[in-house]
Amino acid sequence: MRMISAGVSLVLLLGIASQAHAVPTLQISDGVNPTIIVGDSQLADSAGAPGIVSWAGTLGGWVFTVETGITKPAQGTATNPYLHLNTVATSIGAGSLSIYFSETHFTGDGLLKGIASLSSMLGGSSLNLDVYYDEGNTLFSTANLLASITTTDYLYSDADSMNFDYAGEYSLTLVANLVHGAGVQTSSFDAEARVPEPGSIALLGMGLVVVGFARRRGFRPGHSRSV
User: Fold this and answer.
1) N or C: at which end does the chain have fewer Cβ atoms within 10 angstroms?
2) Cα–Cα distance between 7 and 222 in angstroms, integer?
3) Are 118 and 190 in contact (CB under 8 A)?
């Protein structure tokens, strides 16, 4: 499987490099084995629809039942960005994963107000979501941090605002870092970053107020895992 993973990474990297513009792309690394890179509508993408990148398989001691990224044109637009990452992964021993989903050629025209959200069922130790944007419009760039959410809870759901002021083309990247302990453990999560239509901004603000109120009350959807 090590040789297969390396081959997939090489073929897909060559496919991406040959294009004038980058395509929505998943990147999965366990820090040990060859990195899995899957570009939209390329060799290992099982989705078969523009803007949806999907892969299932193994990487070292990890088994991926689902690994899917969704962005424009399937959902969202260049001026109203949308990135969604869905993962279901099982480990057969202690280890960590870094999962990236990135897209370029979003366009800003001044102040952009968005939201990042994370919902998860964590079978491991911790899960962190970071959202980045890059004014250089570079795939997988982590130049500017917009939002960060971390959980160690078994069941979890939360959101964070992400506001930035920029006019021009830029890229967005979701980065999920998952840590599992010894034994067989399974985690699943949905991560999202979006800049809604202007008419939705008021509803977005109300939603963040509700989340903030719930935090002050000490309420969290879900509960911490008892060991």
Assistant:
1) C
2) 40
3) yes
Give the model's confidence band at 199: pLDDT under 50 very low, under 70 low, under 90 confident, else very high. low
Q: Which of 11, 2, 18 is nearest to 45 (CA)?
A: 11
Q: Indicate the number of domains in the chain.
A: 1
pLDDT tens-digit readout, 119-168: 999 999 999 999 999 999 999 999 999 999 999 999 999 999 999 999 99
Is 198 part of a structural domain of the chain? yes
Q: Which of 81, 41, 57 is nearest to 5 (CA)?
A: 57
Residue 158: CATH number of its domain: 2.60.120
Give me the count of residues in the chain. 227
Pairwise CA distance, residues 134 & 121, whole Å: 30
- Print the domain residue range for 24: 2-216
The answer to the question of residue 223 being in a domain is: no
Gap between the Cα atoms of 147 and 170, Å rounded: 16
Predicted TM-score (pTM) of the model is 0.81
Structure tokens at 56: 């299932």
User: Both tokens of residue 73?
Assistant: 């044109």
